[in-house]
Design a protein that fits this description.
It contains three helices and no strands. Helix 2 packs antiparallel against helix 3. The relative contact order is 0.19. It is mainly α. The mean pLDDT is 93.
């Protein structure tokens, strides 16, 4: 259930920033679940971290190109 980069490139910077905030919030909640021993899917850690990296990469590409 990874985020599609093509979809990300169609978003504005504000929407991408919101997506990063949402993903980091999800990562925080996963860490809390892990600390309490109730994490449902340990593989979701890796997926969320990679999704954050994907979004940040698109933001970086946009700033280099002088995009939106």
């Amino acid at each position: 259930m990874a985020i599609d980069v093509k979809d990300l490139r169609g978003l504005t910077r504000e929407e991408l920033a919101q997506k990063v905030r949402d993903l980091k919030k999800e990562l925080f909640h996963l860490r809390v679940q892990n600390a309490t021993g109730r994490v449902e899917s340990p593989a979701r850690f890796k997926a969320v971290r990679r999704d954050v990296a994907r979004v940040k990469t698109v933001v970086s590409e946009m700033s280099q190109k002088g995009g939106r």
